[in-house]
Amino acid sequence: MDGGARFREVEFGLDPGDFLLVSSDGMLESPCADGAQFGVRGVEAFFAGYAGNTPLEDLVAEVHRRSTFHPLADDVSIILVTPA
């Protein structure tokens, strides 16, 4: 934590079908069998073909499935925000 960090407030909207995904580095930096990290590309690939009803649970399951660390070496925290 950086007690001196300062942030700017930004307003934005989400349209139907949009979502905001906030994640810790544990998910993005999770190493996969191909030597790459799960990363943003892994998230994009997951959601590109996703048709389920439990996206957070299914995304974490996909990270666990592809990761070479069992259990994962870092925390995996994810928040998914959708429009009301």
Envelope shape: flat
What number is the mean pLDDT? Answer: 88
How far apart are the first and last residues' alpha carbons, in Å? 32 Å
Query: Which quaternary structure do these chains form?
Result: single chain
The total count of helices amounts to 3
Helicity, in percent?
Answer: 25-40%
Structural class: alpha+beta
> How many β strands by DSSP?
2
Strand order of the largest sheet: 1-2
Share in β-strands: 5-15%
Radius of gyration equals 15 Å
Unreliable spans: none
Compressed to H and E, one letter per element, the order equals EHHHE
Largest sheet descriptor: 2 strands, antiparallel
Describe the structure.
The structure is a single chain. The protein has 84 residues and is of the alpha+beta class. The protein has a domain at 25-81. Helices cover 31% and strands 10% of the residues. The chain has helices at 25-28, 39-48, 55-66; strands at 20-23, 78-81. It has a two-stranded antiparallel ribbon. Helix 2 (39-48) packs across helix 3.
Q: What distinguishing features does this structure have?
A:
two-stranded antiparallel ribbon, 3 helices, 84 residues, alpha+beta
Question: Would you kindly provide a brief summary of this structure?
Answer:
With 84 residues, the chain is of the alpha+beta class.
